[in-house]
Specification:
Length: 332
């Protein structure tokens, strides 16, 4: 652990010195006793997010025993606005009517406000595009959002513009009554070339920002995959379909299978051995790809008002398409 200075923030850091009677207490419990306005569960989360220090050394374990005389510091992030505000952020619209919007989400665009991303999200853009009519559709901070894509995953999304559409689309996603698939560029060549990954997913007990396959405590998760093309046995383009919709599901399942998604900043932990099968230029191109090479390529669903079947397909964005072209991996 390195010595660091807590970051500047709108909410000032709060410090407390441990006394002799605090020795051996859990750090999160000790801080909850001495820092007003923050629950123990909130403090535990702050510690897990790296926002707590002991004598300038970042805390990593909420259960760490307290040391008498040590100065413990919390640096809570600024509170989010009560409701998201409209922001004029362009986004590509594939279809729109009075009930819903279908868009091609760019990689790098966060779907809704959250700690670390209080604004500049798709929700802020939607509020500017739709006006006040979107406010109140679904959750307060996620109006209109019936499903989401990770920040650096691109592709087709649908957003509800009224309560009828929100209820109908939410039900369709819950019941998996829709047609959607993702394109994933992964390391290696899965064997068999098509199959089903059936493995429960839950929070990684060691790193709370990650998800992991869990034998105990996870939620059932199923991903069906099919190899579309492969290059030198080192990388493969997969079609992935979700039987469930867990956080980071495709990324977690493919990493569990031993074929992590190219560029994944969370689940690709080391350079894959199969990278040695590639020429230097190709290997460097893949290792330098700055995000997970994952694209929500198709979404088909029944319109919640008209009952008409709608289907939308998009090609990968330019960065991922360039990567595929350099490796002669065809989407078709």
């Amino acid at each position: 652990m390195s010595t660091e200075t807590p970051p500047d923030a709108t909410v000032p850091p709060q410090s407390v010195t441990a006394g002799p009677g605090d020795e051996g207490k859990r750090a999160d419990r000790f801080l909850a006793e001495h820092v007003p306005g923050l629950s123990r569960s909130r403090i535990k989360t702050l510690i897990e997010e790296g926002l707590a220090w002991r004598d300038g050394v970042r805390l990593t374990q909420p259960a760490e025993p307290v040391r008498p005389g040590a100065v413990y510091t919390l640096a809570p992030p600024p509170p989010l606005a009560a409701t998201p505000q409209p922001q004029d952020i362009p986004f590509p619209i594939l279809y729109e009517d009075a009930d819903l919007i279908v868009l091609d989400k760019p990689a790098g665009l966060v779907v809704h406000p959250a700690p670390g991303n209080p604004d500049g999200t798709l929700v802020n853009a939607l509020l500017a595009h739709c006006g006040a009519s979107l406010t109140g559709i679904g959750a307060e901070k996620r109006p209109g959002i019936v499903h989401r894509l990770d920040k650096d995953t691109s592709g087709v999304m649908v957003v509800a513009k009224n309560e009828l559409a929100s209820a109908g689309l939410t039900r369709a996603f819950a019941e998996r009554d829709l047609d959607r698939f993702y394109l994933a560029l992964c390391w290696g060549l899965p064997n068999p070339a098509s199959g089903e990954i059936d493995a429960a997913i839950g929070r990684d007990p060691r790193e709370r920002k990650r998800m992991a396959v869990r034998g105990v405590g996870g939620k059932a998760a199923t991903t069906r995959y099919r190899v579309l093309a492969s290059h030198a046995g080192a990388v493969s383009l997969l079609e992935c379909r979700l039987g469930t919709g867990r956080t980071h599901q495709i990324r977690v399942h493919l990493a569990h299978l031993g074929h992590p998604v190219v560029g994944d900043p969370v689940y690709l932990r080391r350079i894959p051995a199969v990278a040695r099968n590639l020429p230097d230029a190709e290997r460097r191109l893949l290792l330098d790809f700055p995000r997970q090479a994952l694209h929500a390529a198709r979404l088909g669903f029944t319109h919640p008002r008209t009952g008409v079947a709608l289907s939308f397909t998009t090609r990968p964005p330019a960065d991922m398409q360039t990567l595929l072209d350099r490796l002669n991996l065809s989407v078709s």
